[in-house]
Amino acid sequence: MPAEKRVPAVLWWQVLIGIWIAVVIWAAFNWIPQTMNLGETSRIAWFHIPVAWICVLAFGTAMVCSIGYLRSRRLVWDDRAVAAAEIGLLFAILATISGAMWAKRAWGVFWNWDPRESSIIILLLIYGAYFALRAAVDDPERRAALAGVYNILAFITVPYLIFVVPRIMASLHPDPIINTGGEGGMDANMRMVLFAGLIGQTMFFFWIFNLGTRLRRLAREVLHE
Amino acid sequence: MSDLVYASIVILIIWAGIFFWVFRLDRRLRRLERALTARSEQGATMADDQSG
Known about the structure:
The complex is a heterodimer of chains A (225) and B (52).
Chain A: H1 9-30, H2 45-72, H3 75-107, H4 115-136, H5 140-168, H6 188-224
Chain B: H1 3-51
């Protein structure tokens, strides 16, 4: 087959991501049983957990890219940091919405200021401020440097707000669903669907992260001309 | 069909919409990148011709 007619490897990856996540969606609804003590509403967990994971991964990636910018002073690292922070914020909003939908069914209200809900709101405000800071500075170099430092400081709060606060304060958040020692432990099929979801969403994150970075770089190059 | 099958079909349709939107955005961006690269190469060649 001539080289120009060959299907690029990246296309196969994109198709694989599409099919992978579709299979996970189908399996989450139709293959695995409901979790013992949470009923059918527990199925939202197979989307909520991977989405929350991508939120942490994206904010971590944004911090690494900000360090990359502060070390090299190359604006492409700033493009990567913004793209990752945007995805992180989007997925934090999705995690909040999916969590609130579950809370409505399980607790009867969308919102009750549970420590997990309060900590995600604080996280949304912290990263909302990151974009406000970026919008307030015109000079690209100065903006990238200030936002880079802020991004590093912002990520320090992420493990505390997501992993520590909900565990040191009394929370209604169903940890036993992912804690196999708890009363609602997962069987092997559930664990397989959860990890497949985490892998699928991670692949999707890297795709949209690449897309966001290219989009920002292109916009910067066009504006400079 | 059960409610779970209906629910999974709705979520699959939403995922298909997101997937094809991102997929098309990727294609369009690739075309733009190629066009910009070709334009900058053409500009470099013209500058070389003028200086030569």
